[in-house]
Structure formats: structure tokens, C-alpha cells
Amino acid sequence: MSQPDPDDLTADHGPREECGVFGAWAPGEEVAKLTYYGLYALQHRGQEAAGISVSDGSQIVVYKDLGLVSQVFDEQVLCSLNGHVAVGHCRYSTTGGGNWQNAQPTFCTTDTGSGITLAHNGNLVNTAELADHARDLGLFRKDAATTDSGVLSALLAHAATDKGVEGAAQELFPTVRGAFSLVFSDENTLYAARDPHGVRPLVLGRLERGWVVASETAALDIVGASFVREVEPGELLAIDASGLRSSRFANPEPKGCVFEYVYLARPDTTISGRSVHATRVDIGRRLAEEHPADGDVVIPVPESGTPAAIGYAQASGIPYGSGLVKNAYVGRTFIEPSQTIRQLGIRLKLNPLREVIRGKRLIVVDDSIVRGNTQRALVRMLREAGAVEVHVRIASPPVRWPCFYGIDFASRAELIGNGLDNEGIRRSIGADSLGYVSLEELIAASEQPRSRLCAACFDGEYPIAIPEDELIGKHVLEGLDPDVADQGSSPAATQQGYGAHDAVQRP
Ligand code: SF4
């Protein structure tokens, strides 16, 4: 196997979000369009695939494809999705490959023929065990999803035959371990559920003529819904013509993801009553106290480093400046970069403003360091643009451990914070100095009690037990057949997995 090219930044990404979920129950509203705009607001959480299911009370129709929300849907498609219940999803693959079958919402049928469609944010840690159970029940089938979400849907639909969807959820969810913020529906009812630890966010909003559920409050804002409350850890919500029903399937043991505050969530989102933007500015202030630097200008690595750079500048009294321009639309284009484009490396994403940088001692504020390749290229680019000193400040502690609850950082061996101490990382990225905010100060900035947060990627203390290596990982289900994992996004790929596609429109 060839070694990865350390200068090839097209393969070096920061932490990748897992997914965004959105649901609407709103008779008289164009729920497909509401969901489209909701997903648009959540696009940062997943850019590989998008899908919307809509039910009119008698039939569920799912439309999904690989690509950005704006690439998958157009006016014509949205106008063909009529009904009063909708479930939406934008995906980055954390379990299963990035192929069409694994796009969500999933769709399964009960033995009585009614449908269940489901969107999942988070990652399960007992997928192999659940898959064994599904296999024993005869729910394994060809040409279906190879995701934890697919297994969950198949088990839910199976149990719903006898117990109804709420009864099935109450029975199934206590056996599911890991992170799950779910939005699902049958023909008439919208459901939402959150794992007992509430690792990933999920909020409830009110429309004049209905309800919405979303991964982040920013998605409520964009559809004009007012924030009601968070879906509680261990809670199941059901919304239909009878109103809103709440029940519990487990006692809450909150362990919200602290990384949502650092990078994952939108800055205009509020989590557990705390503004993400205000948290990031506060982290920057605390970073300046912990790691002061002599510099002429504080510049952010846009966009996620911007609030922390503002805080750093405020606390240090050193002027804030924009020294880097982000190529906002480079995103995931689905076009393989040519060799010439590859060699541009970081310039594909960020371009320096020489008049701000030349002759200056820079303090560069970024949200996190994962592999370190991007920061190494960044420091080199800033020096080439005329910086006389480059002091790197990071608005989170070193990422030393992988995440098993829905964030794709890298394997442990690839994490630069795992193999090197801070001086080693400084030398590796070529900075004049390097400072990370401490975990204590990061948590203080979030204004959440330490006991209610997951910080496992920083301290290795996993709040939900992780099974043995061979029973976990992105391709845990595809591991059944090594060829399947390599089929990538080939539309011709034949898979074995869980779920059905009977009501799914393939573009
Ligand atoms: S390990 Fe890190 S990224 Fe994963 S849930 Fe915990 S805090 Fe969040």
C-alpha cells in the first residue's frame, strides 16, 4: 500500500460531521419544502447524500441521492412530494460506505404492509450485535443499506407489526447502545427520539400549523419555527392529529458532545441554553489567557476559527484581522481534483491576503488539529506570503482519541495529537509557538457541568462502553464481505444489508 502524500490536502480533512436530521408534521404546509430548507440549514453536518420522505396519510414516498441538498432536490421533485409528514436527512457516512443504498431516510415495511422511514444522526456501538439479531429474524436482504441506521429501521419495522411503532420503539431503543438522535415516521405520525446520553443534539420547534424536529436550533430559525425545547435524552416523542405525546424509554444520563461547541454545530445554534458563537468567543478569550503571544495581528482560520480569534483579540488587545480568504464553495464537488489542482494543496481552500500578512508576527487561531497536514501547509503558506512569525493557537485540546459516536476524525494512529507531544506537534507543523486551550477552560466556556459532557476524543474517557475492535468501525457490516466495502459509490454495487426500497424513488 502506498504511503499517503503529506502534502496532498485533498485527503486531509478536519473532523467530519455525521449527519443532520429534520422532521415536520404540519397539515396544510408544504412539508417537503419545509424539510428542504431545514436540511439546507443543516448542510454543514453532512454533504455526501440527502433525502426526504413524505407521507400523505396512506403512502410514504422517499426521494434521496448522493450530493448536496441543493444538488439532489429541485422545484419539480419537491412539488411531487405531497403530504403532511416529512423526514429529512443529510449524510456524511460514519457507518457504511458513501453509496446510494446507504443514503437516508431509510424505508422499511412492517408485515402488515405499513411503512416506516427513519433518519439517524450519531453512531451506534453495538451495531454488530443488533445486526446478528436482525439476521436471526430473517431481516437480512440483498441490495439494502449496510448502516447501523438500516439495521435499526429493519428491527423497528419488524417489532412494529405486533406492537405498533411506539411500542416497538419502547422495546427496541433500550437495547440500542451508542449515539442516536432519530426522526422517523409512519404514514401518519412523526416520531423523534434521543439516546439516553443525548450525545447528539435534537430540538423541537413549533409552527403555527404544526411541529418540526431538527438537529440544531438554526434549522428551526430558517423555517420560522419557534424553539420549544430539546428532545430529552431517553425520550420518545410522537406527533400526530392527537397532539404531542412524550414517553421515556430510558433514564437520562446526559453526555452531550463538547465538540459540537468547538466545531460541529453552526455558530447561530444554541445547545443546552448556551450559544455556540458565544462559547467559541469565550474559548478564544480563555486561550489568550492560557497561551499569550507577542504578535501584531490575530487572524482566524475561517470559518470555524473566527469566533475564537475574535475572543483572543479581545482578551489580548492585539488587533483582529482577516488574513485568509476561504473558498466557500469548494466543498465536496464530487469532481476528483486533477494533479495540478491537487498540488495547489491548501490554496484550494484558503488564500492568503498578503497586504495583511507581510512583515507581521501572526497569531493564527484554528478550531482543532486532527492530522496536522493542513496546519503545516498553512504555516508554510503564511511564511511564503511574508509573515515573520507564525504563532498557532487552537480552540480545543489536542485530539488524541477517535470518536465512536458519530464524528469521523481519523484512526488513532493518524491523529497527530496521539503520537507527538505539543513541542513535537509545533515542530511538525513548523510554527514559532503552539498553544491549545485546556479541557477545563473549554468546558468552562460551554457553561455545562463536566459530568453532563462527553470529551472522550480529548481525554479517552468514553461514556458509552466501546466493544472490541473487530466489532466496530465504519464498515462493520460491510466487513461481512470485503468486496462490498470497496464498492464506494458505484451505482451498480450489489450489497447485502437491511431495509427495503419498495417506496423509494431512484433518480
Ligand atoms: S468523542 Fe469527541 S467528538 Fe465524539 S461525541 Fe465525544 S466529545 Fe464529541
From TrEMBL:
Write out the coiled-coil annotation as residue ranges: none
Gene Ontology terms for molecular function: 4 iron, 4 sulfur cluster binding; amidophosphoribosyltransferase activity; magnesium ion binding
Q: Where is the active site?
A: 19
Instruction: Please name the pathway.
Output: Purine metabolism; IMP biosynthesis via de novo pathway; N(1)-(5-phospho-D-ribosyl)glycinamide from 5-phospho-alpha-D-ribose 1-diphosphate: step 1/2
The entry marks the following residues as binding [4Fe-4S] cluster, namely 257, 403, 454, 457
State the Pfam families in the record: GATase_6, Pribosyltran
Q: Where is this region: Disordered?
A: 483-507
Q: What is its EC number?
A: 2.4.2.14
Gene Ontology terms describing biological process: 'de novo' IMP biosynthetic process; purine nucleobase biosynthetic process
What does the Swiss-Prot or TrEMBL cofactor note state? Binds 1 Mg(2+) ion per subunit. Binds 1 [4Fe-4S] cluster per subunit.
List residues binding Mg(2+): 304, 366-367
Q: Does the keyword Iron apply?
A: yes
SUPFAM superfamilies from the UniProt entry = N-terminal nucleophile aminohydrolases (Ntn hydrolases), PRTase-like
Give UniProt keywords alphabetically. 4Fe-4S, Glutamine amidotransferase, Glycosyltransferase, Iron, Iron-sulfur, Magnesium, Metal-binding, Purine biosynthesis, Transferase
Location of the Glutamine amidotransferase type-2 domain: 19-242
Primary role: Catalyzes the formation of phosphoribosylamine from phosphoribosylpyrophosphate (PRPP) and glutamine.
Q: Which family does it belong to?
A: In the C-terminal section; belongs to the purine/pyrimidine phosphoribosyltransferase family.
- Mind telling me what this protein is named? Amidophosphoribosyltransferase
Q: What is the lineage of its organism?
A: Bacteria, Bacillati, Actinomycetota, Actinomycetes, Pseudonocardiales
Gene name linked to the record? purF
